[in-house]
Amino acid sequence: MHIELVIAKLITVGLGLLITYKAYKGYQTYQNEPMLYVALGFFFISIGSIMEGVLFDVVGLSIFVAGAIQTTIVAIGMLVIIYSLYGQLSQQADGKEGL
Fold first, then answer.
1. Rounded average pLDDT per 10-residue block, the chain, 99 residues
2. Where would you tag: which of 13, 16, 77, 92 has the fewest CB atoms within 10 A of its CB?
């Protein structure tokens, strides 16, 4: 295992979890539901960023399977963030918000 790669991955996870924490605190403070989805999305992306290495080196899965799982987790996180951006807008357009 390359120590430089491990350090880079840890920094990436740390930054992602910091964004997750700040978004969640924003949700708690302002009761802004999209911020909850941003927090959840960044959580998935942060965890997904290290999954390939963990699944390959620790669990012993093939690099293809580990990469597929990592990509799926990151994609789920991105979909959740997209929902936080567009899902609430469609509800507002339908007149459900602000009644």
1. 88 97 97 95 96 92 96 97 84 60
2. 92
Cβ neighbours for 13, distance < 8 A, ≥ 6 positions apart: 46, 47, 49, 50
Cα–Cα nearest to 38, from 75, 88, 76, 85 = 85
Which residue in 46, 30, 29, 52 sits closest to 81, CA to CA? 46
Task: Answer for the pair 87, 37: CB distance below 8 angstroms, yes or no.
Answer: yes
Write out the two tokens for 26.
Answer: 């924003």
Cα 36 to Cα 19: distance, rounded to the nearest angstrom: 11
Read off the pTM: 0.84
Domain boundaries, the chain: 13-91
